[in-house]
Amino acid sequence: MSSDPEVLWYIPNQIQPGHRGDTVDAAPSSLETLTSHARALEDNGWKGALIGSGWGRPDTFTVAAALAARTTTFEPLIAIRPGYWRPANFASAAATLDELTGGRVRINIVSGQDNLAAYGDAEGDQAQRYDRTREFMRLVRRLWTEEDVTFAGEHFQVAGSTVQPRLTPRGERRHPRLYFGGASEAAERTSATESDVQLFWGEPLEDIAARIDRLKRLSRDLDRDLPPLEFGLRITTVVRDTTEAAWSYAEGKVEDMAKARGEGWQDHRRWVAVGQQRLLDLQARGDVLDDNLYTAPGKFGGGGAGATWLVGSPQDVARSLKKYQDLGVTHFVLSDTPYLQEIERQGRQLLPLLKTRSHTAELEAALVQAG
Q1: Are the CB atoms for 165 and 92 separated by under 8 Å?
Q2: What pLDDT, in 10s, does the model give residues 26-70?
Q3: How far apart are CA 282 and CA 246, in angstroms?
């Protein structure tokens, strides 16, 4: 049995209520609401949470710092964009927060399109965007691990730069992990050489297996000089006590989405990137793929991680996540709405099944029962 995966949740970080149908929190961006989610994650066994990013949303780094100050073990996976930050400024800010929190910072580098003109960025085409991202990640990592850094790239330059405070090594961890997504060829080349964790959205097992093989091959072909690339899955998990109850709830939710044509879903579908298009294309292969990968939400407003859902009992969903783990996925970022309620439900029902020592017998029993 492989070791336990690292399992995070998702905090949408929205001004407007109603993200993916969550109508519980009337003030989703208030410090009280956000803190209640972060503390519930601590109380229910979660490692931390991805905090969403994008122009027109609260600043992700500021939110992460506030939540870290109000918690003790919560690890924010902070989504940031190279266009928002210069590498040295970001390296200093992240090193400071990491030291203040005792090493709890994780970073998700985002290169997808955004409202660039609104914040004065001037990205070019896709190739230029990912070239800049590669330089950003390479330089940030050097600033975290070296002193007196001089770097002269096409997009960024520093001379004699030493970031303070210096990061404290914590076992094998020399710096915050750099997560990265993207399914285009340019994105995969960036991840193969510069990221620590490649995040996938919820594609079928055979598609994830092919992408893992391709990224490993790219890492070799491009002479990756970092530790081996790790892999993560960002997906919605619809969990109820029984298989029947989960599917009844999921299908009812999709019916409501269809009636409203996705209106009010607040799911950021303004730009359709390569990875998002891959999810939407899955609909042609059927509403349910593998055992319980539900593709119908993407037809009616679900975007990103909300385009496909894993649906079922805790045992069903744990079994499916274990199959991704068997392919080499060691990081999961899960979510469902209402967010706070599902933090607690899935923390109680699903997370224990993903722990090696506790879930082996139960999952094996579930597999036998399922035939």
Answers
A1: no
A2: 677 899 999 999 999 999 999 999 998 888 889 999 999 999 999
A3: 21
